[in-house]
Amino acid sequence: MRIAGVLRVALAGLSMTVAVTTYGQADTRLPYKGTTAAVVDGKGNMHVPADYRTTYQMLGSWAIAADNGPGSKQLHVVYASPGTIAAYRKDGHFPDGTVLVKEVYKTNTKPMTTGTVSSAGTLSGWFVMVKDDVGRFPENKLWGDGWGWSWFDATDPKKTTSTDYKKDCQSCHIPAQASDWIYTTGYPPLSR
Q1: Integer Cα distance of 146 and 144 in angstroms
Q2: What is residue 51's three-state secondary structure?
């Protein structure tokens, strides 16, 4: 009886040692849970999540004015991974692992009874950002300044055309640097 008790304690200790060792050896580049792990591979390559329209939360939309004439030339519709809005409203920060997906559309502009209206036309592509608080992919040129950054043409949501976030992505976000590179004022659900 005493030997059985000692064996149980030893087995419990061994199980705990294995669990702690396994946890300690986990790939710290991929701590993301749920939706993020499905967007980023072990090398930091990103793709557009297949189910973002049904599982993500809509943050808001932007219209880019036409260069000449009335209406807009582009419409941007932005989604955030589940839980992002509640977390941001709690402390004013995007939690590590947040995924933002921006759809970019060419627009159709026409007169309507309410005035000149621009609506989503042809999808041009997606811009995907993944929050990274610890710099998990220092060798990948699409990661830095707290985010993974990637543009995807509408023809291929799995292969980015971006090669370096500083050259291809960040310049559009310079005015939003103080708000973690995101134009948070354009997203009503983030208001606290």
Answers
A1: 5
A2: coil
pLDDT in tens, the chain (192 residues): 555 443 343 434 433 333 333 323 333 344 445 566 689 999 999 999 999 999 999 999 999 999 999 999 999 999 999 999 999 999 999 999 999 999 999 999 999 999 999 999 999 999 999 999 999 999 999 999 999 999 999 999 999 999 999 999 999 999 999 999 999 999 999 987
pTM score of the predicted model = 0.81
Entry field: residues in the chain? 192
Long-range contacts, stretch 63-70, CB < 8 angstroms, 24+ apart: 63/107, 63/118, 66/109, 66/118, 69/109, 70/109, 70/116
| Tokens 């980015």 -> residue | 160
Sequence-distant (6+) residues with CB within 8 A of 40 are 30, 32, 46, 130, 148
Contact in structure between 115 and 133 (CB atoms under 8 Å): no
Amino acid at 134: V
- CATH superfamily of the domain spanning 31-190: Cytochrome P460 (3.50.70.20)
Contact 168, 148 (CB under 8 A): no
Q: E-assigned strands of the chain?
A: 57-65, 72-80, 99-112, 115-131, 143-144, 147-153
